[in-house]
Amino acid sequence: MVKIIHVVMLFIVIIGLVGFTEFTTDEPEKDIRSEILNVSYADVTKISIINGLSGDSIDIKNGNKITTLVNCISGFPFTETEGQKDVNGYLYALNFYEGGQRISTVTIVGDDIVQINGVYYKSNTTQIEKCVTDVFESGK
């Protein structure tokens, strides 16, 4: 009798795992966090920010501000948008440099649309602009 109970319990566990796996294997959203961090941001020496509305620009060279901005932007989930049609205008354009070499470009197109190294992504938050605005305003 105990052996039958163990077999039934094992069967239930296996069926549960198979069922759980079936529901969690939908095509995953592309998580851009890994892509935005595909270069060593510990080596970023400068971030150049251009305000697309005013044309003003600043260079951030302070390590703490660089870390704050990178952590803020990379803390949001992004999913690649379908269609990849070019969008005119932008709120902020950010160029990340290591020494004199540009290593990445992030353009904040709208409240929830970002272009990272030429690919458009959508986020479920509208706080991305705030990350850059805070750093931009403190760097003036």
Describe the structure.
- With 140 residues, this protein is an alpha+beta fold.
- 36% of the residues lie in helices and 26% in strands.
- It is built from 4 helices and 7 strands; from the N terminus they run H-H-E-E-H-E-E-E-E-E-H.
- The chain has a 7-stranded antiparallel beta sheet.
- Helix 3 packs antiparallel against helix 4 (128-138).
- The radius of gyration is 22 Å and the shape is elongated.
- Residues 24-32 have low confidence and may be disordered.
End-to-end C-alpha gap:
77 Å
Number of E-type strands: 7
Compute the average pLDDT. Answer: 78
Q: How much helical structure, as a percent, in the residues?
A: 25-40%
- CATH 2nd-level architecture: 2-Layer Sandwich
Placed side by side, the strands forming the largest sheet appear as 2-1-4-5-6-7-3
Structural class: alpha+beta
Strand content: 25-35%
List the helices and strands and how they pair.
Elements: H1 2-24, H2 32-36, E1 46-51, E2 57-60, H3 63-74, E3 78-80, E4 92-98, E5 101-108, E6 113-116, E7 119-123, H4 128-138
Antiparallel strand pairs: 1-2, 1-4, 3-7, 4-5, 5-6, 6-7
Helix pairs in contact: 3-4
